[in-house]
Amino acid sequence: MLVAHVPGEKIMAETPNNAGPVASDSTFRRTRRRVADVLFSRNKDEAWTRVVDISLILLIALNVVAVMLDSVHTIHVSYGVYLHTFELVSVLVFSLEYVLRIWSAVDNPWQAQYRRPLVGRLRFAGTAMAVIDLLAILPFYLGAFGLMDLRFLRVLRLLRIFKLTRYSGSMTLLFQVLRAEARTVGAALFVLLLMLVIASSLAFMVEGVSHPGGGFASIPEAMYWGVITMTTVGYGDVVPSSPAGKLLTSVLAIISVAMVALPAGILASGFTSAVQRRREQMEDKIEEALADGSFSAEDEAEIADLVERLNMSEADVRAIRMSVHRDMGDARPCPHCGRKPDEPGTQP
User: Fold this and answer.
1) Per-residue pLDDT tens for 48-79?
2) Which residues contact 320 (CB under 8 A, 6 or more apart)?
3) Which of 148, 151, 238, 250 is deepest in the core (most CB within 10 A)?
4) Residue 249 burial (CB < 10 Å; 0-12/13-18/19+)?
5) Contact in structure between 44 and 53 (CB atoms under 8 Å)
6) This prediction's pTM
7) For residues 184 and 202, is the Cβ–Cβ distance under 8 A?
8) What ranges make up the beta strands (E) of the chain?
9) 122: three-class secondary structure by DSSP
10) What DSSP character marks residue 11?
């Protein structure tokens, strides 16, 4: 149906009755998406992301210093009020950060598994970093309700230092290696535990109650000697007195040199494998980008994002690029015959 236009009147666009709520919902979603971009962004050059990250890093570091200073009695008496006020402000900031991360997790552009409103947020709340964020503020609220001893509360506040792992690619790599090598390291630690129990039992049998210092009066007491001997610390406060005990100590110390170093070797191997996997991932990405012969702006952006996620240095990336360019250059077909250098019939 045609609608006549009367001169001088404004033409009003027909809008549904719920236009207000739709606009409000759109603003709500944009705000949540913007919060997710700032809190979860991998683009550390973005202004707001840098401001938020640096501010939180400084606040975490100052909190750790404040906890240590608060343990000094004279400082606690003189400046306890200021430290408590700083604690209140810090908890408010960390609480707000935790709530905003839970709220905006569904819009995390790099984690599609959190898209569902309820299940996604619960799944995010169970991640390691979300649990660390919760532990950073939980002691304060438990102490406020009198559910925790104040001295124990001070120590738990140091858990906030683990929030720094979110901003350290090296720490992230460490946790990834620990998670990947958990079973192997666990097996090595189990062997060390067996050695400790056996050595402590033998020391109890050899030394027993006859030891003048009473350091081997029971197997649990002998375990202290076993730990000190196996780690080759050798405090000297508990030492065997009999020839058999001294022989046992010598044998245990020699064997333990290799056994105690075993978990370190496993983790070192895990680090090497993880770094190699990152290098291979970067090589695959560069080869994919060079498939058409050159880098596009989109390829450069994707590679930059991958470099940020893998926490690789510019020197490593340049070396990988040169290696890939060289390998792909050698594999390019001959402009005359169309064959690759490694194909039969190709003239050198």
Assistant:
1) 888 888 899 999 999 889 888 988 889 989 99
2) 279, 282, 283, 286
3) 238
4) buried
5) yes
6) 0.62
7) no
8) none
9) helix
10) P
Listed residue (242, 245, 241, 211) closest to 226, CA to CA: 245
Give me the domains of the chain, ranges plus CATH numbers.
30-166 (1.20.120.350), 168-341 (1.10.287.70)
Chain centre to alpha carbon of residue 2: 64
Closest CA to 171 of 211, 136, 212, 132: 132
Structure tokens, 252: 């245990």
Does residue 112 register a pLDDT over 80? no
| Amino acid type, 212 | P
Q: What is the pLDDT of residue 344?
A: 52
What 229-233 contacts at long range (C-beta under 8 Å, 24+ apart), as own/partner pairs, is: 229/199, 229/253, 229/256, 230/192, 230/195, 230/196, 230/199, 230/256, 230/259, 230/260, 231/256, 231/260, 232/256, 232/257, 232/260
- CA-derived radius of gyration, the chain: 31
Q: Check: CB of residue 22 under 8 Å from CB of residue 136.
A: no
Q: What pLDDT band is residue 24 in, cutting at 50, 70 and 90? A: low
CA angle 317, 36, 135 (to 5 degrees): 95
Residue 179's alpha-carbon distances to 259, 264, 266, in angstroms, are: 21, 14, 12
DSSP 32-93: HHHHHHHHH-S-TTSHHHHHHHHHHHHHHHHHHHHHHHHTSHHHHHHHHHHHHHHHHHHHHH
Q: Which residue has the higher pLDDT, 126 or 166?
A: 126
